[in-house]
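RECORD TYPE: inverse folding
INPUT: structure tokens
STRUCTURE:
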């Protein structure tokens, strides 16, 4: 991909979806997968719109672990943030993480037309090794909660070490080409509109974050079955998140894992995302030896699940998942990292220029 930093990038160049869910706009360039070049254009657009003078371009390539590309592991936010950091470094621009969170939102919301929020890029830019990132996406306030083994006051679970399992279904699809993601956003907005109207708050922006839980409980009977499911996922997920921070801080990893798995189940039953293979993968992970909890990664419209596992049983769990998933989905499994369905990982620090 070649682009000039002297060219003004405009949203009209963004990818848009037509009524059939097909992609309009620029396709991938030679050798590109999932239009990753558009994220460079989007990064330039975001920086230009925000008044930054970009004089110098970059020469480079994107590389990740083989098989991770477009797998559903916040890859779009990661690529957008990487381009932003690269352009800023080459132009000696000093930009704080909060600004870059907003810039990445401009890339995805305005340039690419994806109606997602700021959670992924916030996790990428604000997180710290050994901590859980507590993010209020409405107020943009955040705090870091130390892991049990790093909390000197914690008595429960201090000696337990965690690993992260990344499990891949073999399905790949960019969110910008999947109409289901934006449809769920619209359904949540419609549910919020009905609840706010029922409570006499018609002038408030129709977002579920603007609906008090008491209002939801009082008026949820007015929602049709589909909208009721979307709202239930939102409000129950908020409760799981709050309880999850308490469980993490106290070292109760078993309870923390149960909340993660409950989140995954709600994604299937209430948010109704995920495909057959992805749901099978979630179910296998949830019963794998040593796994505390599992769920879809991100929105669940692509092909990755994530799980927390006892470090001492990580290899056993990975072997179990690969064996069981290969039995159910031999063709898909054979296409993943030469048949390696699961990667065993550790958490790391936030994104930075090395």
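DESIGNED SEQUENCE:
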């Amino acid at each position: 991909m070649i682009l000039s930093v002297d060219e003004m990038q405009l949203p009209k160049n963004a990818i848009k979806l037509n009524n059939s869910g097909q992609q309009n706009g620029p396709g991938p360039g030679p050798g590109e997968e999932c239009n990753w070049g558009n994220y460079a254009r989007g990064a330039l657009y975001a920086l230009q719109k925000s008044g930054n003078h970009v004089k110098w371009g970059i020469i480079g390539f994107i590389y990740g672990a083989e098989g991770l590309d477009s797998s559903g592991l916040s890859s779009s936010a990661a690529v957008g943030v990487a381009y932003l950091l690269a352009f800023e470094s080459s132009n000696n621009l000093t930009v704080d993480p909060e600004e870059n969170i907003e810039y990445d939102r401009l890339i995805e919301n305005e340039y690419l037309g994806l109606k997602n929020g700021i959670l992924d890029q916030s996790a990428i830019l604000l997180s710290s090794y050994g901590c859980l990132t507590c993010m209020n996406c409405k107020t943009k306030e955040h705090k870091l909660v130390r892991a049990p083994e790093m909390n000197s006051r914690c008595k429960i679970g201090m000696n337990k070490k965690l690993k992260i399992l990344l499990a891949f279904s073999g399905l790949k699809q960019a969110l910008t080409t999947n109409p289901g993601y934006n449809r769920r956003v619209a359904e949540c907005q419609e549910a919020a509109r009905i609840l706010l109207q029922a409570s006499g708050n018609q002038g408030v922006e129709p977002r579920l974050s603007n609906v008090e839980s008491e209002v939801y409980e009082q008026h949820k009977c007015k929602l049709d079955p589909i909208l009721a499911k979307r709202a239930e996922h939102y409000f129950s997920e908020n409760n799981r998140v709050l309880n999850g921070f308490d469980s993490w801080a106290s070292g109760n990893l078993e309870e923390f894992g149960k909340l993660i798995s409950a989140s995954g189940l709600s994604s299937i039953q209430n948010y109704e995302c995920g495909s057959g293979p992805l749901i099978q993968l979630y179910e296998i992970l949830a019963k794998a030896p040593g796994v505390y909890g599992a769920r879809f990664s991100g929105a669940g419209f692509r092909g990755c699940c994530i799980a927390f596992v006892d470090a001492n049983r990580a290899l056993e769990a990975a072997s179990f998942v690969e064996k069981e998933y290969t039995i159910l989905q031999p063709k898909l499994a054979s296409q993943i990292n030469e048949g390696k369905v699961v990667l065993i990982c550790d958490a790391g620090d936030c994104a930075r220029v090395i």
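NOTES: The first helix runs from residue 36 to 49.
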